[in-house]
# Entry
Amino acid sequence: MQASPLDGLHDVIVPEQVAWWPLAPIWWVIIAALVIAAALVGLKLYRTWQFKKAKRYAIAHSDSMADDSAQLHILLKRLVLHYYSPEHASSATKDWCNTLNKLTGQQFSEQEIMSLYQANSTQPELATKLKMGIRQFKLKESLNV
# Structure
């Protein structure tokens, strides 16, 4: 009688449990890439938040200035000085109106701007227009006026 070929087999040896620690090198690369990406996103968000700080300040102070159109006009000038150049903020009245119209989305006339330099001129409708201009002020706009 012939011996069965199954008699030559040995019992199956179960392998040990594979440990999850220490991680394979590729996992370290993936973790490092995720940490760097998260840091870059955080840095970008922080820089954007810092960049918009002057506009947030202007909006907060425009709400506290009831109908003082002269002070609101000064706030708009300060925004243009901060985000653009002094040449745009100190331009002639016509150029200043064009700059305001482009950056705020509102339509200002030269007469409205000149009336701000008159003594004791209270204009609630102009103050409302200036407040809206501060809220809608464009931070990244090319100025070719």
